Amino acid sequence: MRLDLYQAETALIAQDQTALLDEARATMLAGGALSRLEQNGVLHAIQVLVENAIGKAKQLLKAAGKHVPLSAYDGFLGVAALGAVKSSDLTAWNAAIGLRNRIVHDYMNIDMLRVLELVKNEQYRFITDFLLAPNDFLE
Questions:
Q1: How many domains, the chain?
Q2: Domain region containing 22
């Protein structure tokens, strides 16, 4: 798939999932509690957002003619070397990837209160920013 088409699809998914997280955030900030179904929606939105970012990172590496690692963690090391993300943000990326892995593989050990606090504090926004950012550094 062409990178411009991939980027357009990535942006649509990012906007949709971010809107869901923003809605959940607004509910919580207004003093409302999320139902169990809504909490599962939050987990799914985070999972999709992070997986979308992992996919974009790998596409950027491929477009730059770089090695595309299997590990998402290594993928973000690679895009940091390209300048697509700041090296200082790698700790946040590692945490996001770790949360995604926990949602998918270790779902019995998710601290939902921490996840909801993350949403309240918009700690997902850096992922959205990456997904919506143009790929100018490739030119």
A1: 1
A2: 3-136
Q: What is the pTM of this model?
A: 0.94
Whichever domain contains 46, its CATH number is: 1.20.120.580
pLDDT tens by residue, the chain, 139 residues: 688 899 999 999 999 999 999 999 999 999 999 999 999 999 999 999 999 999 999 999 999 999 999 999 999 999 999 999 999 999 999 999 999 999 999 989 999 999 999 999 999 999 999 999 988 766 6
Which tokens belong to 33? 């509690």
